[in-house]
Specification:
The chain has 623 residues and is α+β, with helices and mostly antiparallel strands. It has 16 helices and 25 strands.
Length: 623
């Protein structure tokens, strides 16, 4: 499979060609060049109509397997009054979509979807005005069904979207908020439908389009990309983290056909026409490494290292009431410590990237969450204008946070520029686990002050760990890629961990986090990045485990205990719904008979999944 999409080809294939026309809201330009470059304020950037009346939505975000794309599709179909099956989505390709942040911050529907929704509503408004002109019928007398605009008083007077604009593009300016990324928003004159007008949104019945191809093995994944003349690349990593090559004996692989060695400071890789030959060369190449001392403590000592490490930055994110005085006057104090290890993102396969860098331009194929930023990072790394680098967004092996997709893509780009041919890079499983960015290890200490009646009068949560953003949330800067770090790009460390996002209400409350230095500051297999919601798995596990411990200490049902300290109606509804679905009423009797016999968390929001964490019971009593 060869994929090489650009906006001109994609729109031509969709029938969205520009012709000379003089209808309201339709461009009169005679060539497709009027669509280039992409303009965030133009309706045509987001919505196009094919000659057959079907529609295409263009979005600078990507679905990573959660089904966000079917949500976008339904929102657009709803506003256009089209059946869902007549709408398609193009997502993430940087030369056909504007930068809307990629997959980031759970903003796919709330922000990216809202911009599409507004654009689709405006497109419908413009199409109705065009139909009014064509049919000589007032706008208020027109109705739309299945992409056909008709006269309410005479159903025979009708015109389809395809007849109105199919094969041409909208020439309508939207109100743009001057933002790129997640916060990009556009609005037209039209107001989107009210909820009581929905025919598709929230109604169900629209199936995801990726499930069957994935089950049947017909979906084209990142690993399936092939480019004519493509070479295969493999990276060579040091035996000890922090070591760099001091000598490379290229003659050691001269018997392997077509092998080339690429060595740039700490960056070392090989390419070959056949993948197996690249693998053999990576294993056979004789490399002399610098004498580097092992930079990491053993796993058993990592938590003691965190506790004793110097603090780079302390953030107090909430300090309500007189916490210290409440603890000093408490009838008893409960304290627990929770430990969380480094964690690999561990996609379903090692990351893969393909790059074709020639004649001052580059095309990259990547499974990254943020293709626009991947293109920007490659442009900076290779010293190319950003408009000369495009990223084709492909389905990868999954991603919940900043994994190694961007690293594989950057490795391929550096290799391709060095050899002047397209290069595909994919690691082995052990390389994916060993060298992908890791979610940070951390220690969490939770304390609660209780009065004589068992009421929590003060609550304190302190986190100490490695930064959750030592690598930024995207690879838009080479400093946040393994290749960039190995090639000496100036580092840009960010010290941040963050407090839990819980919403329990106590009279006195303090939440703080402390960040410690990385174990190895450059080219580390333990360089840290966020996993899922940044810092959420670690802190949520600790907070909810501690709430169970407090329920146990006060001989209170853990569901009732949580509800006692929640005020927000939605939070309360979530707890009640979870308890109902888990059959908690049946389990409550077991809790009452075993309370006091075990310190194991028992809330229906099971902590058993975090088996790598340990809860240490500390001294409980008057402080």
């Amino acid at each position: 499979m060869t994929i090489n999409i650009n906006r001109r080809e994609a729109l031509a294939g969709a029938g969205a060609l520009v012709v000379s026309v003089a209808l309201p809201g339709v461009a009169t330009a005679g060539t497709l060049a009027s669509r280039l470059p992409l303009k965030p304020e133009q309706l045509a950037t987001y919505i196009s109509v094919n000659a057959d009346g079907s529609a295409v939505a263009w979005i600078g975000k990507v679905d990573m397997g959660q089904g966000t794309d079917i949500g976008w599709l339904i929102m657009v179909a709803e506003e256009l009054d089209l059946p869902a099956e007549r709408v398609s989505i193009v997502q993430g390709h940087t030369d056909v979509t504007v930068n809307q942040g990629g997959a980031s911050g759970s903003t796919g529907l709330a922000k990216g979807g809202m911009a599409l929704r507004n654009a689709a509503a405006e497109a419908r408004r413009v199409l109705i005005e065009m139909a009014s002109e064509r049919l000589n019928v007032p706008v208020e007398r027109l109705t739309v069904a299945n992409g056909v605009v008709s006269d309410k008083n005479d159903a025979g007077r009708k015109v389809s979207y395809g007849e109105l604009i199919g094969g041409r593009h909208f020439d309508v300016t939207l109100e743009w908020n001057k933002q790129y990324g997640n916060d990009l928003d556009v609005k037209g004159k039209a107001k989107p439908k009210a909820a009581n007008e929905y025919k598709l949104v929230g109604k169900g019945g629209v199936r995801r389009r990726d499930v069957a191809p994935k089950v049947l093995g017909t979906l084209e994944y990142m690993v399936d990309v092939k480019v004519p003349g493509m070479l295969h690349g493999r990276m060579i990593r040091p035996p000890v983290a922090g070591a760099v090559p001091t000598a490379v004996d290229e003659s050691s692989v001269k018997d392997i056909p077509g092998v080339k060695v690429v060595w740039k400071q700490g960056f070392l890789g090989v390419v070959a026409p056949k993948e197996w030959d690249a693998i053999r060369a990576s294993e056979k190449l004789k490399v002399t490494w610098s004498d580097a001392k092992a930079p990491f403590p053993n796993q058993a000592a990592i938590y003691d290292h965190i506790r004793k490490a110097s603090v780079v930055k302390r953030d107090v994110e909430q300090n309500l009431g007189d916490v210290d005085a409440a603890f000093a006057a408490a009838a008893s104090v409960v304290e627990r410590s929770y430990e969380w290890p480094f964690q690999s993102h561990a996609g379903m396969s090692p990351a893969c990237g393909v790059a074709d860098v020639r004649e001052g331009e580059a095309t990259i194929w990547s499974g990254t969450q943020k293709p626009h930023y991947a293109a920007q990072g490659v442009a900076k790394m290779l010293n190319l204008p950003v408009d000369k680098v495009k990223c084709v967004s492909m389905t990868g092996p999954g991603s919940y946070g900043r994994n190694d997709a961007g690293d594989a893509t950057m490795d391929a780009a550096v290799l391709s520029q060095a050899v002047g041919k397209p290069v595909r890079v994919q690691g082995m499983r052990y390389e994916g686990h060993g060298w992908d960015p890791k979610a940070p290890a951390s220690v969490h200490v939770a304390r609660a002050a209780l009065d004589k009646d068992g009421k929590v009068v003060a609550w304190q949560f302190e986190t100490k760990g490695f930064s959750k953003r030592d690598l930024f949330t995207n690879e838009g800067d080479p400093a946040h890629t393994l290749a960039g770090q190995l090639m000496g790009v100036p580092l840009k460390h960010t010290a941040i961990f963050g407090a839990p996002g819980e919403s329990y209400v106590f009279d006195a409350k303090r939440k703080a986090s402390e960040t410690i230095p990385p174990l190895l500051d450059r080219g580390s297999p333990l360089r840290t990045s966020h996993m899922r919601d940044p810092g959420g798995p670690q802190t949520t596990f600790a907070v909810e485990s501690f709430m169970d411990e407090l329920a146990l200490a006060t001989n209170t049902d853990p569901v009732a205990f949580r509800l006692r300290y929640l005020k927000d109606a939605r939070d309360i509804a979530v707890i009640k719904a979870a308890a109902e679905k888990a059959g908690w009423g049946r389990a409550a009797s077991w809790w009452r008979t075993t309370a006091g016999k075990s310190s194991r968390p028992t809330c229906c929001a099971s902590a058993s999944k975090a088996t790598s964490c340990r809860a240490r019971a500390a001294r409980s009593g008057k402080r």
